Amino acid sequence: MKPRIVLKVGSSNISNGEMIDENKLEAIAKLICELRTHYDILLVSSGAVASGYTRLKIDKSLLSNKQALASIGQPLLMQTYRTTFQHYGIEVAQILVTKNNFDSRTQTKCAKDCIDTLLAHQILPIINENDSTALTEFVGDNDRLSAYVAHYFDAQLLVILSDIDGYFDKNPTLDSHAKILPRVTHIQPQELEAPHTPNAKFATGGIVTKLMAAHFLLERQKSMFLTNGNKLDVLRALLIEGKQTSGTLFGTLPTLPCIIDSK
Ligand code: ADP
């Protein structure tokens, strides 16, 4: 069995602020195609609300509107993924989950059995939150959801693609002297309480939800890599060549089969 990696893409990684950017999706699909020779990949993708907004302009700050936009956008998003991955001969499947599903052992096992079956047949699972039945706490927070996905579906590593190179000692959009932290093994409680600071129009969590995801995994001896979705070479170097050229690694790098192969 290949090691499992969960790859979470944010709205900013697949949209141009207004609509889904097919070139960005294409670049991600190309990398996933290469990674699949060494790993089983599970994709967690945001972007449903942004996609829905291209069809219906309603106030996204209202929860019920956001849920409605997600339900309009989710099939559009999947349609774009299906077409893009078809170029690489990859069949895709949609799995919608809520945090509640992970509170039940039976439901978690049921979803994991489904994921295991898809991966055994080389189908790429594309996971998103089922926004219309989700409780408010998690709506739009795919960072924490993807940490649950990584842990409960037995992945060795969660990769979060963002619009930022990694985790910095200060907010880099406000302070040009901020320095990237290449390795983090412990997150202080106060770092989890900072105000949410999403950067882009469709971003929701900001750095705090990424730190919460990392904290959840670190407590369970799992790892997370935060890197820039516009610099996919960084992720490629880490997972194919075993070299960390940028990004923040929370925890330790799990043993990578491709690096052992090439030794
Ligand atoms: P995404 O949409 O990719 O999930 P977000 O916009 O939600 O990303 O969160 C990333 C943003 O968090 C960064 O662009 C940056 O503006 C902000 N941020 C605040 N503090 C930090 C920090 N210490 N390190 C990195 N990013 C930070």
From TrEMBL:
Q: Would I find Kinase among this entry's keywords? A: yes
Q: Where in the cell is it found?
A: Cytoplasm
Binding sites annotated in the UniProt record for ATP:
8, 162-163, 204-210
Q: Where, in this chain's numbering, is substrate bound?
A: 46, 131, 142
Pfam families hit by this protein: AA_kinase
Q: Which residues form the signal peptide?
A: none
Q: What is this protein called?
A: Glutamate 5-kinase
Q: Which organism is it from?
A: Helicobacter equorum
